[in-house]
Design goal:
single chain; 178 residues; mainly alpha; 2 domains; two-stranded antiparallel ribbon; 2 strands
């Protein structure tokens, strides 16, 4: 009789609210899901860095296309890609501050942060170089700056786009591993 009561109680709890089932060591446990946007939620800045970095890397491709074809539209594409990447870099910088204030990250990995900052500053310089007229807007300085920024972003971004010293762990996964 007691066994049926506890089973019914679990079924009522599962049907009354959304729960997550975890199977660890052969035991089924039901727990409510974590709040998706809590103060200790996932950081915002990796998403913004991850969206902006491909734009800055794509500027290298359009610079190469311009250097090979001399069609001025490729230079226009380059400056738009640089502007979009710089806008997202600025938003990512604000998101890092927000993540620190809301305690979504506990510390900053200064090498990664410095690398992303150098890439953003070189891209700003590259945007100024691209504001020149004609062939000198891209070749040789703009092309070199785009290549340097691309190498920095690929090397530093290889392991992810976060500047957090320690990644926050998912409480469900960490409980499951115990």
């Amino acid at each position: 009789m007691d066994r049926n009561f506890s089973t019914n109680e679990l079924m009522d709890r599962a049907s009354s609210k959304r729960t997550i089932a975890l199977i660890s060591r052969g035991v089924l446990t039901l727990r409510p899901p974590p709040e998706p946007l809590s103060r200790s939620g996932s950081p915002l800045h990796p998403r913004l860095i991850g969206l902006g970095a491909p734009l800055l890397i794509a500027a290298l491709a359009t610079d190469l296309a311009y250097a090979n074809s001399l069609l001025f539209q490729w230079e226009n594409f380059s400056i738009w890609l640089l502007a979009g990447g710089l806008l997202l870099a600025a938003l990512a910088g604000l998101a890092v501050l927000l993540d620190i204030v809301l305690h979504r990250i506990t510390g900053i990995h200064w090498v990664r942060f410095s690398g992303f900052s150098v890439a953003a500053l070189l891209s700003l310089l590259n945007a100024l170089v691209h504001s020149r007229d004609a062939y000198t807007a891209v070749v040789p300085e703009g092309l070199a700056l785009s290549a340097i920024v691309s190498v920095i972003l690929v090397i530093i971004g290889w392991r992810g786009w976060s500047v957090s010293a320690r990644q926050t762990t998912n409480p469900i996964i960490s409980e499951e591993a115990q």
